[in-house]
Amino acid sequence: MIIGIDFDNTIADYTGVFYRVARELDWIPAEVGQSKAQVKAYFISQDQEPKWTELQGIVYGKEIGQARPYNHALSSLKTLQEQGHTLYLVSHKTRYPIIGDKIDFHQAAKTWLTHNGFVGTSDAPFEESSLFFNATLDEKVNKIDQLNCDAFVDDLEKVLTHPRFPQGCKGILFQPDMRQIERNQATNWREVTSLLC
């Protein structure tokens, strides 16, 4: 089976990172919730969306090292690879931030993947040549189709419901905070593995 996997919020867990970085910069009060959604909501409620955009640039760039792999992501991907599945990482994010320091997001993500054992070791689940960073959502969906993915794991429903998402590809929605689990949804990497095998 050919399996595609998203990066941000699917392999890389940013829980608390947006909050910590925003607090370190003194951009939000302490009482703002710690989730990415709560931090974003605060900036929007304060009519400071450009600040939110800048914060994303900082977190996905020079502060990406604060992100941690989701529990069991690495071991699950290694197991899938050992079972003979072909794995591709297919992400979409701009190469550089819209606002702030010009840091290459794609290179920052590759460095994170290497540092956390997803690339660059003899038993790593991904080869460097199996990493695809796309600038737009449309490019990402086209890449999923070009790679002939049989399954794709993503935290964004808009990827899996995109009009050009391949019909023969099983979409698995990864959402650790999900309360009610539907078919083809997972809250952790063990559930992802069981949906794929």
TrEMBL record:
User: Which Gene3D superfamilies does the entry link to?
Assistant: HAD superfamily/HAD-like
Write down the InterPro entries for this protein, in alphabetical order: HAD-like_sf, HAD_sf
Organism's domain of life?
Bacteria
Q: This chain belongs to which protein, by name?
A: Haloacid dehalogenase-like hydrolase
